[in-house]
Amino acid sequence: MRxxxxxxxxxxxxxxxxxxxxxxxxxxxxxxxxxxGQTVDESDIVTLNGQTISLxxxxxxxxxxxxxxxxxxxxxxxxxxxxxxxxxxxxSLKTVGRLDKDSSGLLLLTDDGKLxxxxxxxxxxxxKIYHITINRPLEQQxxxxxxxxxxxxxxISALKLRRLVDDKSWEVTMHEGRTRQIRRTFAKLxxxxxxxxxxxxGDYRLDNLAVGSFRKV
Length: 217
What we know:
Elements lengths: L2 H9 L3 H9 L3 E3 L2 E2 L12 E3 L2 E3 L7 E6 L3 E2 L8 E2 L12 E3 L7 E7 L2 H8 L7 E7 L5 H9 L1 E3 L2 E3 L2 E4 L5 E6 L6 H7 L5 E9 L2 E2 L8 E3 L1
């Protein structure tokens, strides 16, 4: 395992922050200053600012029903963060894919790097299901265009849609996870999304979990 991944998992720092403390000489391996890109074995003793750090013995994964208005980063820069909703002992968990501040619903957090990779790497194509409400009825031609694929700056976005209550309420199924992909896809055709809630991510479902609550899985 690379030292930055080890430090991030063991300490709760982001990978970028782990790189910074390593570069600053705050991390040692077996008493010697670590180097960026160095690998760590299970038998190595790693310290951060003189304190021994280690990987969790068992992985922890939680499902949260993220409320609107919360950001997924640890530093909210004035906004509430999802970590405000978690007890301190779970603050080392990292989000698996994010929901933006104005979106709600199923959010996964884990310290299991292999699980996070299985859920987010494009090769695994994990299904995600959302319910959205748009600002005006979706025209039939736009529905066909979205299902066939809309060209965005980072590639083609094709979404499967199912009408819910009316022509402004839709279920969206996708197998990608690009940043704000659903919002950008609809915006390309002149629609604003007023509500976006994730209900399913791979094998995980929101079910009846209360807003702002979490459960271990």
